[in-house]
Amino acid sequence: MNYQEWIFKIKHHLENVRKQAVKLTAEVIGQTLCEDDFYMISILDKCIRLIDGFAIMIEKRNLTCAGILLRVQIDNCLRTYALYAAENQTEIIRSVYSGEKQINRMKAKDGNLMTDAYLRKQLAKFDKRFDSVYKAASGYIHHSEKAFYSVVSVKEPSFLEFNVGHPVRNELDPVLQECSEAFLYFVKFQFELTRPFIESKVLIDSTDTDSNV
Fold first, then answer.
1. Burial letters for 173-204: b for 16+ Cβ neighbours within 10 Å, e otherwise?
2. How does pLDDT run across 141-167, given as a tens digit for each residue?
3. Rounded distance, CA 203 to CA 61, Å?
4. What is the pLDDT of residues 44-66, one digit of tens each?
5. What does the DSSP assignment read for 117-142?
6. Can you tell which superkingdom this protein's organism belongs to (predicted)?
7. Quick one: which of 12, 46, 62, 198 could link to 57 by a disulfide (CB 3.0–4.6 Å)?
8. DSSP 108
9. Which phi-psi region, left, alpha or beta, contains residue 45 (left: φ > 0; alpha: ψ -120 to 50)?
């Protein structure tokens, strides 16, 4: 499969998960709008916008931006999990629109601060790859070897080729593909983290319906 064929395939997958994200958002809203819905809706909206941006970056072979978007999507998973882990759910819910306190200054139910490192460690219990992919994707945000090796390549002894401002070299196609597969994986990971919330929302809606009968 050449790169263009692969692009067509990956964009199809991205379109599918986008539709799933919209559907999940509708399920979060349900029939009864609650305060915690705003928190979950905002994270799902962010996911949808990341999907849209990622599709463009992969088509343009912009590995730097694709890697950053992957890192932000992983952050979405951290923020989704934080709602379940929080000692004070009201505090974390209201942080979305008040901006008074950062999540990393809030405590989890076990008394630990909900730093990224703490949340990563907790999610790594569900998937061992979580921490390693997080660290790898962070290399695209912080200036590191990720930026260096996407620019410089050794063609022969004593000869370097610089690729500045152009789409990444063809030999980095496997990296682009790996980045895309990881992005799709963590979009679906966020969906799985969202499902318990939706299940509880269905119970709330059914209870409200019963009380109105």
1. eebbbebbebbbbbbebbbebbeebbeebeee
2. 554 455 445 555 545 565 556 556 666
3. 44
4. 999 999 999 999 999 888 888 89
5. HHHHHHHTTT-THHHHHHHHHHTTTS
6. Bacteria
7. 62
8. B
9. alpha
Question: Helix (H) and strand (E) counts for the chain?
Answer: 8, 2
62-100 pLDDT, tens digit per residue, is 888 898 999 999 999 999 999 999 999 999 998 877 777
For residues 205 and 26, the answer to whether their CB atoms sit within 8 Å is: no
Write out the E strands in 11-151.
none
Which has the closest alpha carbon to 79: 125, 33, 114, 126? 114
Nearest to 124 by CA among 109, 134, 114: 134
**Rounded to two decimals, what is the model's pTM?**
0.84
pLDDT at 133 over 70: yes
Is residue 43 within 8 Å of 96, Cβ to Cβ?
A: no
Angle, helices 173-211 vs 3-29, to 10°: value is 20
d(CA 28, CA 119): 23
Is residue 131 within 8 A of residue 120, CB to CB? The reply is: yes
Domain boundaries, the chain: 12-203
